[in-house]
Amino acid sequence: MIASYKYRAYPNDVVELRLNNALDTCRWLYNKLLEECNTSRGNGISPTMQNLQARIVTLKKENPRLNEVYSKTLQMVNYTLWSNIRALSQMKKRGRKIGKLRFKSTFRYRTINYNQSGFKIDREHGTVTFSKIGTIPFDMYRPYSGTVKGVLITRSRDKWYVVIQTEQKVLTSKRDGRSVGIDVGLTSFAIDSDGVVIENPRFYEHSLKKIRKLHRSVSRKQKFSQNWKKAECKLSKVYEHVTNQKKDFLHKLSRYYVDTYATVCIEDLDIKRLKEKGNSTGLHRSIHDASWGRFYSYLMYKAESAGTNIIKVDPRNTSQMCSNCGSIVKKTLSDRIHECPYCGFIADRDYNAAVNIHRVGMEQPFEPVEVIPLHHRNVMQVLLMKQEAPPERRGVVHYTEVIRSS
Ligand SMILES: [Zn+2]
Q1: According to the model, what pLDDT value does residue 404 have?
Q2: For labelling alongside 321, which of 147, 275, 283, 391 has CA 20 to 30 A away?
Q3: Are residues 7 and 75 in the same domain?
């Protein structure tokens, strides 16, 4: 987790002049890159962050003032532009009505970003030295902690501030509370040690008829003709819709786990992939694999800000082991029931695995497993879980259709 510490800074007149010049140059660069970005888009070319990164080098010849600014700082200008572009397009996807990205005026461009390098902090004397700027004293009224990742210098009217960004290690859970183990599977999307079964979303399957129809429509048209472009556009919209539905589902589900539990135990997917390599490949499996990976990454980044602990468990034997007595009970992928010949424990195969993941993750000893009825949650129920962003009316109706037909 990144933490920011803000301190009042006191540059002398010479340094302040350099800061103002650097700000002005960064602002010029930002606007220039944005302008070029808009121009390329107008010509039907979508520029990339890398394109513009390379463009900075040639711009240095056109505007020698760029040479007076630390090179990584210039890169960060491009980086900021792209994170703004992304934020904007995400808002558009959520259905907000917003215009284009604005050019920055002097008052709106206020921060110089030194990321990873180009700065040196002297904690003892309370100064920070920026490459191509100079040394600036600042009021470190409270010490910062963690590993310094970057330093920003920002202007607010006639005052200056340094913002020290540090990486904080989250060692222990910040909250006490319940813990859970989650097993991701093929028959259901996930099942947890509290007996909650999350149904597999089949957004792609439900749009398949439409997708096939559009594919046929595209292939009938003459390539690059107006009608072909129209059909292509329709097709990509359907694909985008499916992707958004899936993301929405995974966001809500991960939000539910992070909000409900203080500790969540999951399998280490990297090891799982390695172990099962060649076992069950194919498209079907790889689609699942991708959504599990995304689910876990959503879980992890949400957990960080919520203070939830995520514990990764070695997937070895989580499905073969009896969660009641610890005996190894061999099963193939098609055996859906765990039936232990040693202690008589019978449970759903994936529930048994989830209990094992929980137990291993929490480092708990074997104890009699309570056989609880499994509660099934369908896709609609997941989508109606706590919202992160206001839902799009149209989208919700579509989800209902998905459920009915399943
Ligand atoms: Zn057993």
Answers
A1: 18
A2: 283
A3: yes
